[in-house]
Design goal:
The structure is a single chain. This protein has a 5-stranded mixed β-sheet with strand order 3-2-1-4-5, with helices on both faces. With 295 residues, the protein is an alpha/beta fold. Helix 2 packs across helix 3 and helix 4 packs across helix 6. It is elongated and about 115 Å long. The protein is built from 6 helices and 5 strands; from the N terminus they run αβαβαβαββαα. The chain folds into 2 domains: 62 residues, ATP synthase, gamma subunit, helix hairpin domain (Helix Hairpins), CATH 1.10.287; 223 residues, ATP synthase, F1 complex, gamma subunit (Pyruvate Kinase, Chain: A, domain 1), CATH 3.40.1380. Strand 1, helix 2 and strand 2 form a beta-alpha-beta unit. 62% of the residues lie in helices and 14% in strands.
């Protein structure tokens, strides 16, 4: 059995750790509230932009198929995968589930004979992909906690350039969609080409009678400007939702760690009481033995 001093040291160490985890939980909770506000402000804009892009694509008709970002390549042998992760850990399975989803997707593409070009945001994703021996065509770090639209634009520019120049035939994105502090869903989204994502999806939710719109300039020119904005906004939305999901996961993980620390302190306290009782019993036995020896 450990001595009373050893158990006291363990209790002190666990209490120090508990103070840290509680502080991290409080910080994550405060940052989560701000991230939720950004999501609430962004979602209506992103949905409206997607709706406008669909309407402009329908108005452009056959002319929309000539836009480079809407045209499917003849083959899809080269595919790009963008992983959205955090810069830090201590958030449970938040980062690892994205990494696993990305590696699983790469394996499926490899079975189909397609090569994968990797892009990743967040230090955790960049380091994990590099550690697994994959080469990154683009890595973006340092803004996972509070992404700016300029960060999404830089990522979108690289992906659009790679697609238009023919270096990749398809671009997909994997990120944690924020649902609640306890729940983040791993979400796959096709970024390029955007024809299926923008034109086909969501039509069932839109009313059959659309308002009459006069386009100036023509719908094709408007669509040329809307599609890059749609891609940038989609990436920015994923970054913002991932940031909120990270803080929610970290808050939950730190709360669980604090509770576990409390249980450890209780167990160590009982262990210390047993050690104290054993020491007292031993001292009494020694006194009794000494008294018997004198008599």
């Amino acid at each position: 059995m450990a001595s009373q001093r050893d158990v006291k040291n363990k209790i002190a160490s666990v209490k120090n750790i508990q103070k840290i985890t509680r502080a991290m939980e409080m910080v994550a909770a405060a940052r989560l509230r701000r991230a939720e506000q950004r999501i609430t402000a962004l979602r209506p804009y992103a949905d409206a932009l997607g709706r406008m892009t669909r309407q402009a694509a329908k108005a452009a008709g056959a002319e929309a198929t000539r836009l480079p970002l809407l045209v499917e390549h003849d083959s899809e042998e080269r595919r790009a995968l963008l992983l959205i992760t955090g810069d830090r850990g201590l958030a449970g399975a938040f980062n690892s589930q994205i990494i696993r989803a990305g590696v699983r997707q790469e394996g499926e593409w490899s079975d189909e004979g397609a090569a994968t070009t990797w892009y990743a945001t967040g230090r955790r994703g960049v380091s994990s992909i590099s550690f697994r021996g994959f080469e990154l065509a683009g890595s973006y770090v340092g803004f996972a906690d509070r992404p700016a639209f300029a960060d999404a634009r830089a990522i979108a520019d690289d992906l659009i350039t790679a697609f238009v120049d023919g270096h990749v035939d398809r671009v997909e994105m994997v990120y944690n969609a924020y649902v609640s502090p306890l729940t983040q869903h791993v979400t796959h989204q096709t970024l390029l080409p955007v024809s299926h994502e923008v034109i086909e999806e969501g039509e069932a939710d839109e009313p059959e009678v659309q308002p009459l719109v006069d386009y100036e300039p023509d719908p094709e020119q408007i669509l040329r400007r809307l599609v890059p904005d749609y891609i940038e906004t989609s990436i920015y939305r994923a970054l913002v939702e991932s940031a909120a999901g990270f803080f929610g996961a970290q808050m939950t993980a730190m709360r669980s760690a604090s509770e576990n620390a409390g249980e450890l302190i209780t167990d160590y306290t009982l262990q210390m009481n047993r050690a104290r009782q054993a020491e007292i019993t031993q001292e009494i036995m020694e006194v009794v033995a000494g008294a018997e020896g004198v008599s």
